[in-house]
Records
---
Amino acid sequence: MASEALAELQRRVSGDPAFAQRLRALEPERFVAEVMRESARLGLDVSEDDLRGSIARGRHAWVMRWIR
Amino acid sequence: MNGWPAGDWFPIGVFREEGRWLVDWCRLGSHRFVEPFFDETVERCLHHPFNLAFRRLTPLDELAENDPGALAPSGFIFHLSRCGSTLVSQSLAASTENLVVSEAAPIDQIVRARRFEAGVRERDQVRRLRAIVAAFGRMRSGPERNFVLKLDAWHALDLPLFERAFPGVPSIFMYRDPLEIMVSHARHFSLFMASLNAPSLLGISLAEAQLMPRAEYHARMLGKICEAVVAHDITPDALVAYDELPAAIEERILPRFGIELTPQAQLNLRNSLERNAKMPQLQFSSDVEEKQREVTTEMRSAFERYVGKPYAELEAIHKRRMRRSTMPAQRPMVLRAAASDRLILREPEAADAEALCDYYQRNAARFAPWDPPRSADVAEHHAWIAARQAQRHSGHPVAFLAFDPASSLLAGVVTLNGFGDLPPSAMIDYTLDANFEGKGYGTEAVSRIVSYAFDTLALELISAYYHPDNFRSGRLLERAGFRVVARPQIVPGLEHLMRPQIVAIRERPRGE
């Protein structure tokens, strides 16, 4: 499950189109490191495991669409 | 609060968790739905870790049924699978004014919910379907005016649900000979035939389906859909057969959906029709003969047993339409200016009357010295268009409107008239809008029609008449390869009947 900090970051991203656009514009290779930096700047204690776990869950949820 | 995330988020799935229906959202950004299938658009979005890390889940039942910013559906495309429906959806998606969503999983998940879950009320299903369709209707990058949804093949079993959710929204059902479809499914895996829940459409278990011969399984699925469409009492106008493609797109489907394309969109559509819809690197071509050659005895036997009868009934309904339409609509001819892509010349259509009226009104002062005044009554322009459509030379059109694809403005009018036989000849008339004067548009338009007259109408000679004071016209003709051959003198005493004029001609180049 996502940590409270990650959940808060997700809320901010979905409520702020400009912030979302900035993160979406990141190079995929730099994505995790940059999001960690943004989280710290916002005072959110998002761990790298949280973030990578969220990415993995997103991929898993999409793959599971075949089971329908 | 309408329950939708702000901006450019779109639903990629609907599922049930802990007794609640949830919508899974993903951010589309500035990307459009241009891939042949919804799943491919989502895959593309999910390439970026942002869209995997920052998904949103919201309760489905919190979504409002509509949104003022959402486009209402223009039409629904139902189909029997592997029958040209992707060609139709892709040709529409080629233009930015069309929002086309093709086989979207969230719609399917709502439609199928009732089949897999007891107790889902139809009115809830209708509300959820409206909400999720509205969520897609919001996905506008700017110029979208039309919104077409292509459904999954098995959604034809739920035609009544769609009609209840969207009364008055037109739909079509596309199909082809089921034997050819069976060949296609035997060649390539499809979710339609292979998903774990698919057998339930036939009322059988997955285990039973796995034991069933493939041809029988495919034939039973196709038969089930054909039966549902016939039982729904579908109108002949809603049936589109594969062998009517691609002409049916412009002649039947767009008018049925009330979609009028700009000249640029029309051009995009026609260009896209030259490509294979699912593999755009390949050219589109009919594959009827090729597929018929691959039909096996087993397929034919399964066809006869499970799908032959409802297919024959579909065909009988379709033939009623064919018999009724004694005069099929003619596809308007479109020419492109040879020198560039900046002009499209096409036959006038009834819908052009207003643009034509406006064209003559805004240029009235400029045309006054050379041409008789044109009416400000749109009806008279309608009549002119109807007359030009009826007046063809050897079956070919003789009047063209030149459009600027960038602005969709009517830039000019070029007509051929006064056809003669010895030698085969015609006179050319042309006018050009003030906005396009002095930039070579007139020369391009006239040159294109001259080529058309030589190449398509097989004329030998084209003549043009212009007033000696109309220097621009003289220069335009000179650039288009005409040469002055006469300057008729006014006969004394007949000044009130004659206008001074210069005659220029262009002959077919030797050896052509």
Note: Residues 484 and 504 of chain B are 4 Å apart (CA to CA).
---
Amino acid sequence: MTGWRFIAALSLASIAALTPLSAPPLPAATPKKASIEARLQRVEDDLAIRRVIVDYATFLDGRDYAHYADLFAPDGEWVNGGGSHKGQAAIRQMLESTMGPALAPNRANYHLVSNPRIDIDGDRATATSRYLFMMRGPDGRPTPSLAGVYHDELVRIGGQWKIKRRIADDIMPTPDEWRKIMAARKAAAQ
Amino acid sequence: MTRAAMGIGLILSLALAPAAQAAPRPTQLSIEQRLQRAEDEIAIRRILIDYHWNMDQRDFDAYAALFAKEGVWTSGDQAHKGPAEIRKMMVGIFGEPKPGQPNRRSIEITTNPEITIDGDHAKARSRHLLVWRGPDGSPQPMLAGRYEDDLIRENGAWKILKRIDFPVMPTIEEWGSIMRARAAAAAK
């Protein structure tokens, strides 16, 4: 299962320190003086970044580790309360070591991603989005199991938007509560 | 075809032509107008998302600033007009925000945007799912609802002119008793 969530937890305060919550949002309105082409580029960038956010869940749930890692920049970083993994190889290794064989059919859980908020500044962008992680319940019903916010920094490399850094901020349950819930599930299954 | 029939046909096509042109198809708009539409759609989607972002962050100034000067928030028999009154409503529900104490007890999922733009006016429909921390910390869906919005472009920025908040499940009455029970439990 998602063993990487079990890694010893940093405090929520350190997540808050990493999270660019206080950064003022860029003005949402496009400056009218920008050229048609620059304005179109911005619309295209917005759509491309939305796609990165959704592809992330597709590749994660599909256990497609190669494509998942390729969403990141070569020096891209994935961070959560348990620590950080930097570089495509380390990010791929993180999944391979905790989530089972690549491309194995996964019908045990999936991620609903929503609420994209994207601010573009030339070849860089920031984004937040939300995730609701659903697991098969004891009777097979989808059960909301984890909800949180992704905080992303993105960069354009070779014309493609890549994740420079993604912070997965698990909001509910807390890492301690998650460990207890998973332990109880494991005990119930035995 | 007779001359008379051709004449009737011409008159009919002249009569019908203005009606057919009344709603310009995107292809009849200039490239810049079509681009503006796409930008407007993105800007309005962002308002729908920012509404819940600001609510969940308990940033009531930013929340109230999403409304037009004459903007109205309404649900059932409640209505609040103008950003100052709307901010006051939020403080009434959640209390004054406490800096350094982020809200980690609830999260709103915002979905199903349907946006129709007409120049400097727009209409939007969307849905939301309010998720609370359950007893063991697990996310628990608490309230599912939908919104109907009127928006206007005010000083170049899209603002909410009217938001109607429709709880779907539970009902407004059921939600009221859940909230009262919660407040009573918190007061103990």
Note: The radius of gyration of chain B is 23 Å.
